User: Fold Tryptophan halogenase from Saccharopolyspora antimicrobica.
Amino acid sequence: MTQTDAAAKNLGDPGKTRRVVVVGGGTAGWMTASYLTAAFGDKIDVTVVESAQIGTIGVGEATFSDIRHFFEFLRLAESDWMPACNATYKLAVRFENWREPGHHFYHPFEQMGSIDGFPLSDWWLRYPRTDRFDKDCFVMASLCDAQRSPRYLDGTPVDQGVFETGHGEETARATMAEYQGAQFPYAYHFEAHLLAKFLTKYATDRGARHVVDNVVDVALDEHGFISHVKTAEHGELAGDLFVDCTGFRGLLMNKALGEPFISYQDTLPNDSAVALQVPLDMDREPLRPCTTATAQEAGWIWTIPLISRIGTGYVYASDYCEPEEAERVLREFVGPEAADVEANHIRMRIGRSRRSWVNNCVAVGLSSGFVEPLESTGIFFIHHAIEQMVKYFPSGRDNDRLRNMYNRSTANVMDGVREFLCLHYRAAKRADTQYWKDTKTRPVPEALEERLENWKYKVPDAETVYPYYHGLPPYSYNCILLGAGGFDIRHSPALDMADETAALAEFERIRLKAEKLVQELPTQNEYFAKMRENA
Ligand SMILES: Cc1cc2nc3c(=O)[nH]c(=O)nc-3n(C[C@H](O)[C@H](O)[C@H](O)COP(=O)(O)OP(=O)(O)OC[C@H]3O[C@@H](n4cnc5c(N)ncnc54)[C@H](O)[C@@H]3O)c2cc1C
Ligand SMILES: N[C@H](Cc1c[nH]c2cc(Cl)ccc12)C(=O)O
Assistant:
């Protein structure tokens, strides 16, 4: 649709927000364009402008289980998008060597039970069945160790309960906020550039305009609102709302509008990464249904199994490790398969924009904020931002209240995830290098210091974790604290007197359910080999 078409559709009404210009064609840009077209159809006019010269970040392949709501909102079933994105399932993050060499534990997608008002983790501290908190309290930990698929070969999902949406699995349409309390049993891994390509078609098939060009200037009016962006070859792109999806550069939000950036670097020092895309033959190599985070001397290496390749990379602190050393460590970790693969070195901007919505500009993705991908939160931030953008969508220009509510919500999500990541380093037992020694003394957000002291006496629960919505449930904190081994946590004194019968029965129920599912479920390799056969 040309700008004149948009005018003809009365899209230029100053009292309405009808023309949305998205600058950037990475995961953030195309997730935003797709979601807005799904939300508002032809009531708004969406244009995406992306540079052919400036690349996307090229990584970002593991997700939260909440991402299911994004695809459902677009009315997409897994069969619609997973094959196009070489996607696999993710049951958990597997943390290796965070406690000591050779040790691993999981942070799974599975609610943790409670007995007589006490979390299962508290009962486990009083009556530990084994030395594996994760396997004793979560069925999924055993499925991860056995590298099982979360679906049977006929496609039936492992836990029917999570799909009771009232609409059937394929057409449920909901936001993350509507599902608080429920817990889907798995998330996904997918190839980032293939997802962007898939969503480009999804959005343009539904009317979004795609302009491949460089934005060379951002024009502000006398009120500091963006009137248009100027492109190298396609003239001016006018709009009512501009979405900055330009990545770490924050072209509109931080450069044109001058919105300050709040760094998290003092508490999260990992500011660099080097990534490899390593070919994988799923007929010969296992497809572990987890994202793996393997601790290293100055950071950690991610391993993300996809249908055709492994996404892997070393996230490290440049104060402790040079890029060349990081690449050497990564290549040694991967082995000979990495020999002919080009490395992608990335400098990460850790922190967030003070505000992510200023005047008529909303930043989404890396331009809004980012923390290292230890818990796969980048795409969750995008998804949350887009849902909130629709929730607080402006009627015109006078929307201070909507903007303020949006900015508070966005800041809380990122500040909360920051705390959760800081916890990983404080809770990690290892202290064998200066990097790991420093994790024990490095400052953390003040509120977290207080929470850490409290958690030594009482496992984390809804009353004692970060109080605002940030995507992570209390059980996630228990997984990290009791998995990483660096904290001595006491059980509640009440459990010295309470009857433990029901708790011990619950541990046995978990053990038997895990045993049964490991016997019944296919491996992820078997599942996707079957899907390939049926294609
Ligand atoms: C090392 C690393 C690992 C990560 N792993 C994960 C993960 O496992 N899970 C997860 O959820 N997230 C992860 N992330 C975050 C994830 O990669 C990003 O959130 C996601 O890719 C969104 O990026 P983006 O679209 O904001 O920016 P980018 O991908 O950088 O895209 C920026 C876009 O802006 C365009 N652009 C820039 N300037 C201009 C201009 N002047 N004119 C026109 N176009 C312009 C570019 O062409 C590009 O299309 C990771 C990030 C890093 C750095
Ligand atoms: N909103 C939850 C967040 C969550 C719960 N468990 C995990 C495990 C991992 Cl590895 C990442 C995020 C979460 C969800 O998306 O499931």
Q: What stands out?
A: The pocket of flavin-adenine dinucleotide (ligand 1) is lined by residues 23-29, 49-51, 54, 56-57, 59-63, 192, 214-215, 245-247, 249, 251, 273, 275, 313, 346, 348, 365-367, 373, 376, 378-379, 382 (CB under 6 Å). The first strand starts at residue 19 and ends at 23.
